Batch of 2 targets.
Target 1
Amino acid sequence: MKVYYDKDADLSLVKGKNVAIIGYGSQGHAHAQNLNDSGVKVTVGVRKSGPSWAKAEQAGLKVAEVADAVKQAVTRKTLVLGIQHFTAADLRAVQAAGQALQIRVLGLASIAPDVSPELALAAIESLTVLGALHASAAVKAALANRMR
């Protein structure tokens, strides 16, 4: 097992960028606080009605609804840490807006079973996942040449 230390990290990769942390549980809390303490611009994506919203605000972090945090991060071509989930409705909305997603996730990217390969191709321009990708075999095959 390799252990990584502060000296092994290159913060220049995320300095000056907006990083979305999805969820504010034990991992999301730790990621958000560490990045924020290191000078990275962090937005925590949680449910407005959930208890994590107030906790993240009290910690001095920028907080947004999950969809808004993801949209902001994707629009600005930044990195999402945690879990990013896309349903057919999400992708149809992107397609209806005449946009295409450039998805970058450190953690879990999930594309719902109701997403067809055709819809995925129409709405997803590129996909970079450092972690795990959950999607149907057909969607993975359709996006294979768009994965980095």
Target 2
Amino acid sequence: MDQALPNMPAAVRAELDAYKKSGKYADEALPLPKVPVVLLTGTKKNPEFPGNPLEQDLKLELHRALLAKIPHSKHVLVPNSRHYIQNDAPALVIEAVRDIASHSISGFRFKNALNRSVAKNTPPLLHSADSFPCSIMNARNARLIRVW
């Protein structure tokens, strides 16, 4: 990776730098509260996109290292997606949200709202009134999103 980095476009180098910073922030957030964590990782490689195969390998390595530090976490690999998992594999995203909701105290209320939302083909609205603890890791840039 160190050998390839100088030959990558500036935008790719900047993104890799952002990954490192984001990973540092995630490390500083540990240990997480005892809530379910599901991480979706797009693993599709596109050799025609400069730096993508290396980027995908690095992302997978960083995600595995992060999840090794989070007990009872779940890692879902999405082979038909690189970036837009919500577009490429929406059923997996819905399944991950349902998985997290099923572990929550007030998950029943949330699951009912999610089922109504899916039936109407509209995104669910999550707000503090739902008051269920969960964490969702955004696989693209490793941002931790806590929903309470």
